[in-house]
């Protein structure tokens, strides 16, 4: 067993999923001049999956921190500070749900307009 969870693969994966992947998604969506609905929907679903995986990793790191000899791990993952760590996945889940809702609402709006044109 390693001395600290900060040197575990799970922690590095959490950092990757918390900062790198969402930043890449946001950067890509802002960089593109045009983007398909399917791509935006996939990005929303990825953000939801990232939030679920991040919560799983936080729970795993909490258990690992309890078993590690390092007290600094306990201060981050087992104490009240850990509640703040759950805010990041919650934010990604909220953004993912909003992106998916946006796609569904715009699709339904166009479908209603097409129905109105066809039945006028």
Question: Describe it for me?
Answer:
This protein is mainly alpha-helical and 120 residues long. The chain has one domain. The chain is built from five helices and no strands. Helix 1 (9-31) runs antiparallel to helix 2, helix 2 (37-67) crosses helix 3 and helix 2 runs antiparallel to helix 5 (87-118). The protein is elongated, with a radius of gyration of 20 Å. The model has no long low-confidence stretch (mean pLDDT 89).
* Strand fraction: under 5%
- Mean pLDDT comes to 89
Outline the low-pLDDT stretches: none
Number of helices: 5
Q: Report the span from N to C terminus.
A: 71 Å
Please indicate the count of domains. Answer: 1
User: How many individual β-strands?
Assistant: 0
SSE order, as H and E? HHHHH
Characterize the main sheet: none
- Percent helix, as a range, is over 70%
Shape: elongated
Rg over CA atoms, rounded to whole Å, is 20 Å
Structural class: mainly alpha
């Amino acid at each position: 067993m390693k001395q600290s969870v900060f040197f575990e693969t799970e922690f590095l994966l959490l950092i990757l999923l918390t900062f790198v992947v969402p930043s890449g998604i946001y950067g890509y969506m802002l960089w593109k001049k045009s983007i398909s609905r399917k791509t935006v929907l996939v990005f929303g679903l990825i953000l939801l999956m990232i939030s679920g995986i991040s919560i799983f990793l936080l729970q795993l790191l909490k258990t690992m921190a309890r078993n590690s000899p390092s007290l600094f791990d306990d201060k981050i993952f087992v104490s009240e500070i850990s509640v703040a760590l759950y805010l990041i996945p919650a934010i990604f889940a909220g953004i993912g749900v909003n992106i998916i809702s946006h796609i569904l609402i715009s699709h339904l709006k166009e479908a209603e307009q097409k129905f109105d044109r066809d039945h006028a």
